[in-house]
Amino acid sequence: MRIKICGITRPEDAELALKLGADTIGCVFHPGSVRAVSERVASDIRSVVDAAATMVGLFVDPESATVEALLESVELDVLQFHGSEAPEFCERFARPYLKAVAMTGGVDLPAVEEVYSSSVGLVLDSAHGGQFGGTGQPFNWDWVGQGLEHRVMLAGGLTADNVVEAVTRVQPAAVDVSSGVETEEKGIKDEDRMRAFIEAAQSVMTTGGL
Fold it and tell me: CA–CA separation, 159 vs 155, rounded Å?
């Protein structure tokens, strides 16, 4: 099971997350996010992400030119799409991609999986109060069902206090945390919270990985 720390805004936070045991770093490139980073900052973060780790770039309904321009200056290993992007759009950048899914009781995950079968996995995130992602609130893990565990990156309101239960119930290939390991300032990661989360997740490691 892989552990992703998302919403990284500083190179020192990325370096510390990897040192503590995370293997995937996520940066947000959606201008509407308080955790969005510039190309310059992303390049600085990339410089501390070694070859053994993965750097993911998160986008929300971007223009093709925006993604292409960013890829010219920042080497992203994986793209993560959080909007209504069609699979044909996600596939056009010659990079592995993750497709985020806003989890509600009515989501038909097998159908979503069929549409986005070209992705390397589905990021299952919370949708609360009209906001998708970054809510700090978990969704109902029973909605995940069985059969897609090897394709699931579990996100949405995960913390050191609930990640053991979440992994035990869902058996995901990866977990993804952002606000659950932050200080009071959004985008700034807390060393103790990252350590506690990573240690808890590692204690119930599942097989697989995205």
Answer: 10
